[in-house]
DNA sequence: GGATTGACGTGTC
DNA sequence: AGACACGCCAATC
């Protein structure tokens, strides 16, 4: 890793997500100025697994509120357990009231 | 250095 | 409404 400033930005945003809140890859990508490059956020998240301090990636889901990345948590239920622990209701790997729990960095931070 | 992949998003059929 | 296709940028093979 040379200087993954892009990753650090993503990490910083994700770490700023307050408990009980969630955001989407697209929102982060947009905040970073790459609205249609949401894949990079996912890629950054993959690197986040190796980041210190650990990134609360369980608060980051896709635009549908679906726990797409739960597979990378080691156990397929860990992600919903964490979200559920924060008061977020997860059913069928999908966040209920996603819009209500949605935390938009472009609004909260900007 | 070219080809492939990747925790996605949006638009179309 | 569900499925398929394309785009996007960076990292890895």
Task: Explain the layout of strands and helices.
Blueprint lengths: L4 H11 L7 E2 H8 L5 H11 L11 E2 L16 H8 L4 E2 L2 E2 L2 H4 L3 H4 L2
Parallel strand pairs: 1-2
Antiparallel strand pairs: 3-4
Helix pairs in contact: 1-3, 2-3
This protein binds a DNA duplex (13 and 13 nucleotides) through helix 2, helix 3 and strand 2.
Tags for this model:
Arc Repressor Mutant, subunit A; two-stranded parallel ribbon; two-stranded antiparallel ribbon; 6 helices; 42% helix; DNA-binding
Radius of gyration: 13 Å
- Highest-level CATH class: Mainly Alpha
- Return the CATH topology: Arc Repressor Mutant, subunit A
Residue windows where pLDDT falls under 50 for at least 5 positions: none
Largest sheet: 2 strands, parallel
Compressed to H and E, one letter per element, the order equals: HEHHEHEEHH
- Structurally, the number of domains stands at 1
Q: How large a portion of the residues is in β-strands, by DSSP E? A: 5-15%
Structural class: mainly alpha
Helicity range:
40-55%
Taking strands numbered 1, 2, ... along the chain, how are they ordered across the largest sheet?
1-2
Distance from first to last alpha carbon: 28 Å
């Amino acid at each position: 890793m040379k200087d993954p400033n892009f990753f650090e930005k993503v990490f910083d945003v994700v770490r700023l997500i307050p408990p009980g809140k969630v955001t989407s890859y697209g929102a982060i990508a947009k905040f970073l100025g790459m609205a249609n490059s949401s894949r990079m956020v996912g890629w950054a998240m993959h690197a986040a697994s190796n980041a210190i301090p650990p990134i609360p990636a369980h608060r980051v889901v896709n635009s549908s509120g679906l726990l797409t990345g739960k597979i990378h948590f080691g156990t397929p239920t860990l992600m919903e357990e964490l979200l559920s622990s924060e008061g977020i209701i997860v059913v069928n790997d999908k966040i209920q009231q996603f819009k209500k729990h949605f935390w938009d960095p472009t609004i909260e931070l900007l």
